[in-house]
Amino acid sequence: MNLWQEYKRPASISEAIQALTSASGSVMPIAGGTDLLLDLKQGRHAPVNTLIDLTFVHEMKLLEVRGDELFIGAAVAVNRVALDPLVGTHAQALVEAGNLIAGPQVRNTATLGGNVAHALPAADGTIALTALNAQAEVASPAGMRRMPFTSLFAGPGKSALDKGKEIIVGFYLPLTKNHQASCFKRIMRPQGVALPILNCAVWLEREGDVVKDIHIAVGPGGPIPFRATEAEATLRGQSFTEETFALALEALLGQAKFRTSARRASADYRKHIVGGLFKDVLDAAWVRAG
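The chain above was modelled as a monomer; its predicted structure follows.
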């Protein structure tokens, strides 16, 4: 049984939207295909009539500074993201996340947009982008629009976008200024290409010994990528001390909705280890921002 019947390669965003909306039967956009093709082959995704290959869309392959923002096209390979000096300067957490996604061969093929579109609440690239306060650029028959990054998600493995009409074009990240920095780390089982038990990303701005601003993301902390907004509020405007960290951790534990996964870890275990991971990431970002 064929997994798809038609395969199209548009060269522009307008051609891609036209191909999506005019396709007969079921249709899916594809870039690296490292998730989608496996799902199709292993029966976790229904056969698709038409695949729309986005890797030939020039706009979606760009990685560049635009004004006071860094733009990363959704079809940029994860390995290119991890190695690019612009990303290293302005989004260190995303570099660290990219280097932990699967293995080198997969990273050379998998795309950042695909990592996001798969809509897993603990995807490494997704958690980093959440902490970096990214915005997504989305194309549809109505045109292009920007949207807050976390509004792309409807639940575990469920995108809020209509994949038959909409595509993620890319992501916009604020450029890093003095005394701003980010960090990403995860805890995983030491076996082959391990999936994360828990991951965490922090972006912060410091002013002397005070946390001027901060974004905290933890995965999986809920059904969609989780921003620990209550922990952020606890730290924002406060001196960075053991006491303020303890209050922030208490706030994070009170807001996060950790779940049990048979393949990864129990909710109780995640609650037990999140404090150490959060502290390591926060300390690293704090030192970098100094």
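The chain has three domains: 6-52, 59-174, 180-289.
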